[in-house]
Amino acid sequence: MSGFSKEKYLDIGYEVVSLSDNEEFLALADQASLYVDDLSSQRVKTQTLWKSKNNTIKQAVNAHRHLESYKSLLESDAIRDIILAVFEETPCYITGSKLSLKHVGETQIWYAHQDRAYLQNTELKCATFGVLLEDCGEANGAIHVIPESHKAGLVKHDIVFEPSEKEPQIKIPGVDSSRAVALEGKKGDVLVFDGGTIHFSGENSAGGKRPIFIFQVQEVEGIPLEIDGSLAVVFNYQYEESLDLRSVRRKKRLRNLLVYPVLKKALYFCKAVGLLKLIRLTK
Ligand SMILES: O=C(O)CCC(=O)C(=O)O
């Protein structure tokens, strides 16, 4: 399999796998990159777009559920090989994806965080993958990682609002970024980092939209369905024949309908309370 070193990945917590010279995979990346300029179009209007305050698209959530070319990337042999190299026999699944963009002249930064912090069960084995849909380097907003940061376990995160964003982010306070490494590569190369690896990214000052198709892979706990209740892309796992998937899906949909909107409102409430406190302090 093309250049993935498990030993290095385990040791430093990340790896850039060179797949830009794999013609089959590059053709899939090419196909997926065609949609980067077409995200608000009729064809993809059902997908969730995460926009900055000035309505610039920052992320297209779960592009693989709406666009065949993104699903093909997830189901490609090249990605399967890396996932199985990382997880070996462990049943695992792709929990979700996002096409992450950075426009020139926009802040669109990501504060230092660990993706593991988003999990309900933070002990589970998990990894983040990123397929570069354009060449990516320091100048156009590469993702930076802190080598070996996964070895320290889960660290404390704050919930913060980047001033130009509508949605909150998580942030590890006081990260020393002097040891950070930029994950640079060519279109078609694949970034892989441990769910505990601290990472962040800055602005794009070079041009283009810096599209990276990011997805998370996680050890299976319970039944590997995606958050909207649809079947996930799974590895090393067989659905039991007796499983009543329809009722499981129904429960998940109900949770999405009732629980997530409440959580979102709670976040806005916390933000409002924080603002009030700030106003009182500055008076
Ligand atoms: O797109 C990026 O630069 C980073 C995105 C990221 O870290 C995230 O979505 O959690």
**End-to-end Cα distance:** 62 Å
Main sheet: strands, sense, barrel: 8 strands, antiparallel
Question: Can you tell me the CATH superfamily of the largest domain?
Answer: q2cbj1_9rhob like domain
Structural class: alpha+beta
**What fold name stands as the CATH topology of the largest domain?**
Jelly Rolls
Distinct bound molecules: 2-oxoglutaric acid
If you compute it from the alpha carbons, what radius of gyration comes out, rounded to the nearest whole angstrom?
Answer: 19 Å
What is the helix fraction of residues, given as a range? 25-40%
Strand content: 15-25%
The CATH architecture category of the largest domain equals Sandwich
CATH class of the largest domain: Mainly Beta
Order of helices and strands: HEHEEHHEEEEEEEEEEEH
**Total count of strands:** 14
Poorly predicted regions: none
Given the structure, what is the number of helices?
5
Tertiary shape: globular
- Average of per-residue pLDDT values: 89
Count of all domains? 2
